[in-house]
Specification:
Blueprint: E1 4-8, H1 15-23, E2 41-47, E3 50-56, H2 68-81, E4 85-91, H3 98-108, E5 114-119, H4 127-132, E6 142-143, H5 152-163, H6 179-184, E7 187-193, H7 199-207, E8 225-233, E9 238-246, H8 259-274, E10 277-283, H9 290-301, E11 305-311, H10 319-333, E12 342-344, H11 353-367, H12 373-386, E13 398-406, E14 411-417, H13 424-437, E15 446-450
Parallel strand pairs: 1-3, 1-4, 4-5, 5-6, 7-9, 7-10, 10-11, 11-12, 14-15
Antiparallel strand pairs: 2-3, 8-9, 13-14
Subunit structure: Associates with the 50S ribosomal subunit.
Organism: Novosphingobium mangrovi (ex Hu et al. 2023)
Keywords: GTP-binding, Hydrolase, Nucleotide-binding, Repeat, Ribosome biogenesis
Length: 460
Amino acid sequence: MLPQVIIIGRPNVGKSTLFNRLVGKRLALVDDQPGVTRDRRFGDAHLLGLDFTIVDTAGWEDDEAETLPGRMRQQTEAALATADVALFVIDARAGLTPLDEEIAQWLRASPVPVILLANKAEGRAGESGLLEAYSLGLGDPVAISAEHGEGMGDLFEGLLPHLEPLQPPEEGELEEEDEEALLRGPLKLAIVGRPNAGKSTLINRYLKEDRLLTGPEAGITRDSIAIDWVWHDPKADEDREVRLIDTAGMRKKAQVTEKLERLAVQDARHAIDFAEVVVLVLDATRGLEHQDLKIASMVLEEGRALMIAINKWDVAEDASSLFNGIRDALNEGLAQVRGVPLMAISGRTGKGLDDLMAAAFSIREAWSRRVPTSALNRWFDDALSANPPPAPGGKRIKLRYITQAKTRPPGFVLFGTRLDMLPESYKRYLINGIRRELGFEAVPIRLNLRSPKNPFATKK
């Protein structure tokens, strides 16, 4: 386990910019308006030889505990409890505020070592704020510019005495991951859906803690938040690693007008790219909407294994009719992958959550499956015998053999002649047969056609 370093400060002092600087990529959303970050975000940071986990937190605000800012502050308080070092960030250009002094008083009462960072200190505009920072009683402030990368050497010197004893031992080079190792690794599971479908509540129920902000307000989640977790499989009586990824709600494109929401939706799409299995969460009180089908199609186009969970099942009306109606609509709207796993769950009561996780591991296995070439071509010969390809215009389409070129998602290459004349309906026949008879379940499958070059094609 790497040591944890938490970033704390009032809104808009540059915490997420510093987070992005330390992880070396733009993982956290950044904007000029305050209050962009709402949930804790974890990242792997590397600074001049020091390795640690950096934790970005919401801006500290002095509001009642039941309000959204108050719940955000509780997330920060929970993060400090597990931190090894706290980075307290102030805005050197704005100078000290009463809220800065309140945060400093809270941090002084904590046993966690605190490094005071005066951000935006480049140029003369930050000099007065840097001098004011001495009055907080947290030692000498470190002048930095998170945006321009200035002061990182001084930050390293401040972190070194606290983090050097906690550095993990060096390991030899890891062997190249094979497919079995990928299946033994953590399941990368993204939770997507429209706003207020209960995605964060679902994850909190799995974790058995209020790890993510929830509430009646739609669109609370903005960043895609990845959380490493261990699920105990009750049927196999074993622990299995999972990386849960919470994402922002995806509304219709025409309804997304704010810049921050556009960024959040882009972040959610990016999270899908890194997932293995994606769970699309529906709201049982609203049923299946066109936007849900658009999200599902996007997941399948990205080649990810898809599952659909009808959440809030504990308050569903006419449950049997609702379930069957959604199943029929999915079969019609997602014709490219019939039989996508559909499950009824409740993030509030915990109904169906173990079954959902077990199914996610199962579909990942199908998504990662490789069929031996001999077995694949035995199936292929049987498929051709049962239903030979057509001969449009009297011209025979000859299908020679098929091979699996890749996994995750499964990709196949079909070799033959006159493949440009092969109807789409026959391609679907082959794809459905691969899925049904070779154990690929309802995962997206790619089938590419390849014909030998005609040596006379360019001759006149």
